[in-house]
Amino acid sequence: MAFLRLASATIVAITGIALQAASVTAGVVSYDWRVTPVATAFNGVPTTSLGINDRPAHEAAIDVQLGQDVEVSVTNELDEPTYLHWHGLRQLGAQEMDGVPKITQCNIDPNRTVGCLHLPDPQYIDSVSEFVSRLDLEGDVSNNVHVWGK
User: Fold this and answer.
1) What range(s) does the Plastocyanin-like domain occupy (predicted)?
2) Are 133 and 127 in contact (CB under 8 A)?
3) pLDDT in tens, 57-103
4) Domain layout of the chain by residue ranges
5) Is 27 exposed, middle or buried (0-12, 13-18, 19+ CB in 10 A)?
C-alpha cells in the first residue's frame, strides 16, 4: 500500500478539542493512539494517508485542563517506521519526543508501542499568527506565510 509521505511519514498531533474519549486519573489525561492508514482525498484525488485511530491525523486532539499532565500511548500499525511530532505541546529538554527524525528522535517501528508523558506549559503559543495557526489545523503547512496566497 502506498502512503502519502510527508516529512518522512511524520504524523502531526495538534492541541484542540478532543474528538475521542480519554481517561483521567489523578491529574493525568491518558490517550491510546494507533497510527493507521486512512482513505483520504487531496484536491479530489483519492489516496491513502496516515491517521490516528482510523481517522485523519488532524482530527486527533488532546484536551486538558490547566494543571493536568498528558500521557499518550502510541502504537504504529503501519508497515513502515513513523514519528510523532507534537505541535502545540512545548517539549523543553525532551527532544527525543519532539526532535528531528533520525537525529534526536527515534522512530516508532511497525507493531511497536511507545509512551510519552507531557507536562503542558500554559504560557506556550505555537503560532503567533492566527493565519498560520488556522493552516496548522489543516495538516503539514509551511510556516512561511508568504508561500500561501501567491
Assistant:
1) 40-113
2) yes
3) 888 888 777 778 888 899 999 999 988 777 656 666 666 666 667 77
4) 10-122
5) exposed
